[in-house]
Amino acid sequence: MDITREILQFLHFHPLSSREEIATGTAFKGSDATMKRIIASCVKSGDIVQEGKARATRYRLSNQAFLLMPLNIDTYFAQDVDERLVQTTFNFDLIREQLPNITLFTDEEIIKLQELQTVFRQHVSEMSESEYRKEMERLGIDLSWKSAQIEGNTYSLLETERLLRESKTADGKTKEEAVMLLNHKDALRFILDNPDYLQNLSISHIEDIHQLLTKDLSVDRGIRHRRVGITGTNYHPLDNEFQIREAMNDTCCLINGKTNVFEKAFLALVLLSYIQAFSDGNKRTARITSNAILVANGYCPLSFRTVDSIDYKKAMLIFYEQNNLYAFKQIFINQYEFAVKEYF
To answer: What's the pLDDT score for residue 1?
Structure first.
């Protein structure tokens, strides 16, 4: 790891540190003049914010760097869950103050995504309606399988395909597993049949998608009224219904106010998971809502087929605990590229 990234990582966990504290914390072996020059360069680039003067000078990450700088996931999760220094409660400033004032994707990332989108639109324009529907069905099978697998569903991809195409359940599987997959199929059909449904995001629209995904499962409908825990983390989501609705409303306003479709879809993916508005099915709802936004705007949806379930969960947990989006953003970009190249 280069020293600049090491300094940024140190400040992520130790905001408002002095130059001496940064040098000690990173075991920096160079001169004080070199450390001063590195920090000054980071201040100029907008990654570090300087507060105070002279001996009282302290440094912290900018919002942009705090939310988007690379964190070493392997090192982070090498620590036991109870040893990690985490933000255990919901960050109320995140949706209202921090995310509205940053650009989620770099210029290079936007260029790459837009180039992929151009390829998608060109290929779709050359397809008949039946060909388009066939590819969307194939993508939908992959998405249903992977989305359910992330939640612990044991159906294989081939078993999922047989269930969704032929309504044949797999031996040795529970009824609930089949219902979860069939609900994905219904939710995806709904967003394809109503492509403009998520042009403007609202809490009621999100609740509609959640109801489709949890139909005939033992899941409470609507915004939850009780606490919910998340396995593998000490982050605790909001437990007050009024605050949950407020956070959901703020999220809808944030997403609706964005002009970049990739930012809209990405924010839906991470924030609906972060808020955990429902007693169960939050990540499934986030994935379908994110895809509904892409479809509503004529963009390629994601199947997540090639993402490793553990990597997905780790990227989500590091956002819960540190509000850092870097790992999950890489998943989003990689899966968009895969979807364009694989299906269209």
So the answer is: 59
